[in-house]
Structure formats: structure tokens, C-alpha cells
Design goal:
about 260 residues; alpha/beta; Rossmann fold; seven-stranded mixed β-sheet; 10 strands; globular
Length: about 260
């Protein structure tokens, strides 16, 4: 007779185990061969190698010096590592539901928990329903083997994201541009933030990043590129400068008051 799994093992069985590929130049995280979850260059583990992650860092145009960043979805930890290293005065809380993903944090060089960085094994949607973390920035990049989980794109979830932010906090959501309900999801985010949201396609155009602000209007008039880059080291500034310029230009074209 087979014994039922213990509590932690049972939780593991509820989630699909990802696999890691090493091609000699990079480690990549996958649930299926057709979908890349994360990629880390072996010689530059802190580099944001996947295009949409650089686009998500566009929040620096609105919040160049956040004190608390929340993130739903650890993946291979690219964004978590980058923010931890580059934003030294910032606390970071990462919520990851899949214990198999968390188990790979060492392989992807995700830092250990300390006074300003922690990874919590939790359902991000449920966490936001019961906590009031007061994030300056909330990054939502939660995907599983089936894509975008329904719990992370409901109207209730985006309402809870709004409530989890400080009075001028910024939400950043990664969406698949070809998702059949893409327009519906963008509409939900916009509704939760009273229309104060804007979409920016990543350079490869398979991902779309939605920025939404609880405070001042999302507008290029609020942006300062030098200020946005000021807290980063020279390598990170070089990596992000062109992407932040591109984001600011696209937002300028979308803003009727600056057209």
C-alpha cells in the first residue's frame, strides 16, 4: 500500500516541475520546450537576457528609487536578482506558488533571504487578499505550464494589486500579446486603476507590459531618464538606457498632450 504524501510533498505534487536546459552559454527554465520561462547567461548571471524583463524595468521611469518592490512569480529570478543588486536601498518580497521553482533558486543564483530580500512560498492572489504590503512597485510575472493563471488576471486580482500599492505605487504586468483574452485583461487593469494604465510592447512583440499607477497619471512628462538611471551601476545603465528611451518615446506618442 502506498502511503499518502506528507504535507510538503503533497503541495509539490500539485504543481508541474519545470526543467532546466544548459546549452553551454545559458541556463534556461521551461515547463514545455515551446515556452521559455527564464534565461540566465552563464558568464553574466545578472544580465537581463530576455527582452520583456528589460521592458518591465520601465517602472524606473516613474519610481526611480522604490523602497519596497513586490513580485509575483520568481521564475529563474532574473528580475529579482537585478533589482536586488541594482536597487541597494530597496526591500524586495517575491511570491512564488510552485515549490519546484523555488528549489531551483540556487541554480539560477537567486540570493538567499536576508534583511531586504525574501522569497515566500505563497499564492500571490491569496496573499494580496489578506495582506496590505504597501509596495512602491508590484511586478506581476506569474505563469505556469498552461500560461497565465486565471487567479492572476481576474478583476478581483487587479483590484487587490491596486490596494497593495502605496498611494503613488506602480503596477507592472507581463501579458502574452497573443492571449485570446488579451484586450479583456488590459481592460481589467485599466478599470482597477481608473484608466491610469498604458501598454508597451516588448521589442520582440510577443509580450506586452502594462504599467498602471495608483497616483499621478502615467505620462512622459513625469519621466527623467538621468534620474531613472542614477541608482544603477555602469553596466546596468548601459543595458537599460536604450530600452527606457524606447519606452518613453512610445508613451510620448500615446499621450495626446505631448503629441
Amino acid at each position: 500500500m502506498t502511503r499518502p504524501p506528507a504535507g510538503g510533498d503533497f503541495l509539490s505534487l500539485q504543481h508541474v516541475k519545470p526543467f532546466v536546459r544548459n546549452d553551454g552559454a545559458a541556463l534556461s527554465l521551461h515547463f514545455t520546450l515551446g515556452e521559455l520561462q527564464s534565461r540566465m547567461l552563464l558568464r553574466r548571471p545578472g544580465y537581463l537576457d530576455v527582452d520583456y524583463t528589460r521592458t518591465m524595468m520601465g517602472f524606473l521611469l516613474f519610481k526611480p528609487a522604490p523602497t519596497h518592490i513586490g513580485m509575483i512569480g520568481l521564475g529563474g529570478g532574473s528580475l529579482a536578482k537585478f533589482c536586488h543588486r541594482q536597487l541597494g536601498g530597496c526591500q524586495m518580497t517575491v511570491l512564488e506558488i510552485n515549490p519546484h521553482v523555488i528549489a531551483l533558486r540556487g541554480e539560477f543564483q537567486v540570493p538567499e533571504d536576508d534583511g531586504r530580500f525574501r522569497v515566500i512560498a505563497a499564492d500571490g492572489a491569496i496573499y494580496l487578499q489578506h495582506e496590505a504590503p504597501g509596495f512602491d512597485v508590484l511586478l506581476v510575472d506569474g505563469f505556469d505550464h498552461q500560461g497565465q493563471p486565471a487567479a492572476l488576471c481576474s478583476q478581483r486580482f487587479y483590484d487587490d494589486c491596486f490596494a497593495a500599492l502605496t498611494h503613488d505605487g506602480v503596477l507592472v504586468v507581463n501579458l502574452h500579446r497573443d492571449h485570446p483574452d488579451y484586450a479583456l485583461l488590459v481592460g481589467r487593469i485599466s478599470r482597477s486603476f481608473s484608466g491610469n494604465a498604458v501598454e508597451v510592447l516588448a521589442t520582440e512583440k510577443s509580450n506586452s507590459i502594462v504599467f498602471a499607477s495608483r497616483g499621478p497619471a502615467i505620462s512622459p512628462r513625469r519621466m527623467s531618464l538621468p534620474q531613472s538611471l542614477s541608482g544603477l551601476d555602469a553596466e546596468a545603465r548601459m543595458q537599460l538606457k536604450s530600452e527606457l528611451v524606447r519606452i518613453a518615446w512610445e508613451m510620448k506618442n500615446l499621450d495626446p498632450q505631448t503629441a
